[in-house]
Known about the structure:
Elements: H1 2-13, H2 18-34, H3 46-71, H4 77-108, E1 114-119, H5 123-134, E2 140-146, H6 161-167, E3 172-176, H7 182-194, E4 198-202, H8 206-209, E5 213-218, E6 221-226, H9 234-270, E7 276-282, E8 288-294, H10 317-324, H11 332-338, E9 342-344, H12 351-357, E10 373-375, H13 377-380, H14 390-405, H15 409-425
Parallel strand pairs: 1-2, 1-3, 3-4, 9-10
Antiparallel strand pairs: 5-6, 7-8
Amino acid sequence: MDLFIILAVSYTLLSNSLLDLFFFGLFWICLSFFFSFYKVYRFTTIIRIISLLSKQISVFTLLIFTYYYIKGAFIDFKVIFLFYVLLLIIFNLWRIVLHSLFRKYRVVIGGDYNRVVILGKNSSTKRLELFFNNEPSYGYKYSGFFTDKNENNKLGSISESFDYVLEKNIDEIYCSIKELTNDQITKLIFFADNNLKTLKFIPDNKYIFSKKLKFENYNIIPILSLSEIPLKTGINKFTKRAFDIIFSLLVIIGILSWFTPLIALLIRLESKGPVFFKQLRYGADFNLFACYKFRSMMANKDSDSVQAAKNDMRITKMGKFIRRTSIDELPQFFNVLFGSMSVVGPRPLLLSHTNDYKNKINKFMVRHTVKPGITGLAQVSGYRGNIETDMDMQNRVKYDIFYVENWSWTLDFKIIIKTISNVLKGEEKAY
């Protein structure tokens, strides 16, 4: 179906040559292996599917553009852009509808499900049991649990699970590592391999296994290591920096070039002092940088240590407006252009807040492994504005760390769109 869509759109917009269409189909198939495009499972989220689509179609379009360039054939940029947009729309609609239909089919018809059992009984297995029972659209049919503990409603002991799995034609076995001995795990693996059953493990260390893990082989020795921060890898770092430069230049040339003199005049008419406000903040790798804003307060000695609060007497009338609309943040696009900030990332905090919380909140410093952003996941998730309690900071840091450890282009675009939406609607905590 995907190849049919590709060839139909290519034939309509690009070429009716069989050779060209052959290469286009070949490009799509090769990229599918490279990006693991068809590794979509019943537990794969819509966001993950859209992310895979975006990568695949973007690179696919670039390959076609390169193909025409190598051939020496002219292709109108408008046509290739229309091709790209059309593929994005068609594929997103097609895949989302298909994903939804499968989920509806599992709920209504009760088909396309996997029979599962759980070995062990503890808090982790209880959460998994609730997931199986409360989320029928994922297509799991929960049969029960086995444990050597004295528990009510169990199907039997661990050793009795083997016969049950074969008798009831169970598809997947989920076992809690902390309730099984090494000998039992060895027997389970042997049993699953020889009876073509899927065996999955529930880890006993929530902190370590909640992170992404990378599997490597040192000769024939298997090693599990914590995955690298996505934005520390070369290609991600390069493409994000390229995006930052292009995006910041568009804002600086398209908006700040004519908007800055107007805002500067309004700021100076109301109060004396500089148009721009400069404040030191900690950036990537905990390096200090000067963060720029349009001045929104009367000149005061507490600006570097005391965060703005609601109805703050230091804020000018013009300041209230530019803070409410986030206009005061626009000069930070110069920070982005010069490389000390990014368009999206953890918001840089006051030095006083950083010094207060870096030893109080676990993993606080992880947020400083990447460049700070003009907007961030915490800000679009409701954690913007004054930090009044330790819990405010803990929630903000939680979102920042999630962003750092799970960065993707899909997440960045989602944050940018949500930020624009929030600015247009106005935010309660924007003061």
